[in-house]
């Protein structure tokens, strides 16, 4: 059922999960710092749509399938760690922002696809599908929550893009750029630990 009493806990969960630091928001912040918030919008849309679609897949049984396939779960965990470490390495070696530096980290498809190796996205969508859906869940229940998850994510992840955009001028300074890039890389590396340790 989609009455406000049952949706409110889901809304709070979605806001906390999509608005707090993690791989998605670190990537968005770093991308917007280099190319601006507007050019980072495709990445934001890809991330939020990817999370919404992953929630739908979890709600229709993907979460239960993974629980019965530990080999697949382990393989996904290793792939996720590898991708996150690769992006962290790119961030760490990005250097200061220079004139004409217009290289977004990922675009729309990259942002959407990244969710399938993002441990926080797996945690968000798996928890949301198992804890915040009524039993049995109708198609409307799933669609409403997927839309709300997307909308809340779009608003909150966009704030990280605005934060990154505000850092464009300081990133032209080599010292600040090294500190910022190291902080973003460290955040991504920290995000790999739950993956390696079994979430």
Description:
The chain has 199 residues and is mainly alpha-helical. The protein has one domain (4-193). Helix content is 77%, strand content 0%. Helix 2 runs antiparallel to helix 8. The two termini are 30 Å apart. The mean pLDDT is 81.
Q: Into how many domains do the coordinates divide?
A: 1
CA gyration radius, whole angstroms: 17 Å
Mean pLDDT: 81
> What's the end-to-end separation, in Å?
30 Å
Number of helices: 8
Helix and strand sequence: HHHHHHHH
Q: Hey, roughly how much beta strand do the residues contain?
A: under 5%
Would you report the number of β strands? 0
For the biggest sheet, the summary is: none
Shape: globular
Briefly summarize what is shown.
By secondary structure, this protein is mostly helical. 77% of the residues lie in helices and 0% in strands.
List the helices and strands and how they pair.
Blueprint: H1 4-19, H2 23-35, H3 37-67, H4 70-92, H5 108-114, H6 119-131, H7 139-166, H8 174-196
Helix pairs in contact: 1-7, 2-3, 2-7, 2-8, 3-5, 3-6, 3-7, 4-8
